[in-house]
Specification:
The structure is a homodimer. Chain A has ten helices and 15 strands. By secondary structure, chain A is an alpha/beta fold. Chain A folds into two domains: about 160 residues, Peroxisomal Thiolase, Chain A, domain 1 (3-Layer(aba) Sandwich), CATH 3.40.47.40; about 150 residues, 3-Layer(aba) Sandwich (Peroxisomal Thiolase, Chain A, domain 1), CATH 3.40.47. In chain A, helix 3 links the parallel strand 5 and strand 6. In chain A, helix 2 packs across helix 3 and helix 6 crosses helix 7. The mean pLDDT of chain A is about 95. At the A-B interface, strand 1, helix 3, strand 6, helix 4 and helix 10 of A face strand 1, helix 3, strand 6, helix 4 and helix 10 of B.
């Protein structure tokens, strides 16, 4: 049973475990620092599919199938799937999951989707109403570029503040049946914030206030601080957004620099890979969670971790209409289950 | 606490109540048979906004504000908002809800969003972790037409199987604090089904199999049949989808004709309003729920109701790529709380 703590945080009293998880990437991810940690890296960004959108659906399904296989599970053993992606009408997920025959809750949280889906999956398992729920999301550089920016063939120049959409997916099965290592201890859903940023090539700046707000609120609700956690991972703030996050929290007297890492800065080597301000996309925090963070919680290299995916909730249409970029950050407190707590 | 019944249904043991609700429409809705039941009907489809997308955000927010006001609530009394819409990246909801300062779970379920959001809101309240949650969604004829079909100015011809996107919104507050009249007794989330329909102008046909599947599963899970309910409302199958639903269920030996109504057929007068196969859009089942169904549950004209919103999960891109239309239907069993129910 979940208990509300403070104004926004939910403590999941059963601490539902993450039974299995998988991360899939493509060529760019295979050239990055985390390559060895992915379950699968497909050098063909088309994944053998005729279109980029179908490639993304294939990628997400592949990742889900891997997560299930690693847990020795069939789809029939899932009670619910929580998934979403960046594409218009979330077709990456709808077409990826359509053959699963598992009840499906479609989400749209932009790049916050991995934390959003994990939060809901863990909540349902914690409630006792579901035994096993899947959280999944994906993004694809090629489908995202042509949808949000320019057709690939156009070869548009990208400003230094732009980020590179990860071609990748992450999937995790939350289960009441496994020993709680790693487990979901607490969750803190985010509110929509808008600081008036209008530059669609500077998502990190647009999302940093949401990350700062959720983190600040979580610390208040739980009476903890950054020192209580081995690491605080934000989703895809990139270089600019990460600096802003530290500055915004600094103004509140909170210093997280000694604990903070950003998935968008971990997944690529900015010196060598021409990704400008870092990685982004739903698949960024999703694949880093499943390739890099969860394995460390499982083997005890990390014990208490805050995982915050951040999402920019604009569309190309709202941007062309002169709107600023609303953003959101959902937080999941993950624990190795070794220390007994928070 | 929720209890899983059969393969997919969740019984919400606390039967969380719907404290307040509101429905907002525009000109076309004001000319339809349900006009008197709406809380607000704005003759200006632009709602005073410069763009159709901004009009939709305004409309959704207006509806949410009304639902809160009718319940004597402030946004601060909400624990969570569950919302989504049809627009790319769900900007109707993100921009509509951005000023609320309430934790936000963004959904994409196409026209199934009202049942999806209500299902989640009720589940969170039932769990005891949330006291009050809001479920909301909207659609707008003008923003949907230009996004899914043609710019309005083009004046494209619509085939007889096409449906008319409702310019409307619905919002409902689920609360643990009110007497359970009406209340959410059970929910049954849907799976994604795809019967191979590719005609983007025949959504009713694409969605009927999903509605049939969810309804069939719910009856199996609960050991009930259509005679156990005063009415079974589908979301926006329209004329063609409704006929197909009856046919598909008939093959399974289930006759719902004497109980079935479709929100897409209720909201407009097909003889007089030139809407072809009926109404559609997230706002269709949402506004009919809040204008027509919930008031009848409150005053006892209806006691046990099944509410199924249906969603077509394609996008214009997937359609142009030759893909068929996956669809989904989520079910919410609403009760007046008077009979003691099941």
């Amino acid at each position: 049973m979940a208990t509300k703590i403070g104004s926004r945080t939910l403590r999941l009293d059963s601490r539902p475990g993450i039974l299995s998880f998988a991360a899939v990437g493509s060529k760019k991810e295979s050239e990055g620092p985390l390559a060895q940690e992915f379950d699968q890296l497909c050098p063909d960004a088309a994944f053998g599919q005729p279109t980029w959108e179908q490639a993304e659906s294939y990628l997400q399904r592949e990742c889900v199938d891997l997560a299930l296989a690693k847990g020795g599970l069939s789809p029939q053993e899932l009670d619910l799937i929580f998934a979403g992606d960046l594409l218009n009408q979330c077709i990456g997920s709808a077409y990826g999951m359509r053959g699963m025959a598992v009840p499906y809750i479609g989400l749209y949280g932009a790049c916050s989707t991995m934390a959003e889906s994990l939060l809901l999956a863990a909540f349902f398992v914690d409630s006792g109403a579901a035994r096993q729920c899947l959280a999944a999301t994906s993004s694809h550089f090629c489908s995202a570029e042509r949808q949000f920016r320019f057709p690939l063939d156009y070869g548009g120049q990208r400003p230094p503040s732009a980020q590179w959409t990860v071609t990748g997916a992450g999937a995790a099965v939350v289960s009441s049946l496994c020993p709680p290592q790693p487990c979901v201890a607490q969750v803190c859903p985010g509110v929509i914030l808008d600081y008036g940023i209008k530059d669609i090539n500077n998502m990190g700046a647009a999302m940093a206030p949401a990350a700062a707000d959720t983190l600040h609120r979580f610390f208040e609700d739980t009476g903890t601080g950054p020192e209580g956690y081995d690491a605080i991972f934000t989703g895809d703030l990139g270089q600019i957004g990460s600096e802003l996050l530290l500055e915004l929290l600094g103004r509140e007297g909170i210093d997280i620099a000694f604990r903070h890492q950003d998935c968008g800065l971990l997944i690529y080597d900015r010196e060598k890979q021409d990704v400008h301000a870092g990685g982004s996309g739903c698949g960024c925090s999703a694949s880093v969670l499943c390739a890099h963070i969860l394995p460390r919680l499982r083997d005890g290299r990390l014990n208490e971790v805050l995982f915050l995916s951040t999402g920019a909730l604009m569309s190309p249409t709202s941007n062309l209409q002169g709107e600023s970029i609303p953003s959101i950050a959902h937080l999941v407190h993950l624990s190795s289950g070794r220390k007994g707590g928070d």
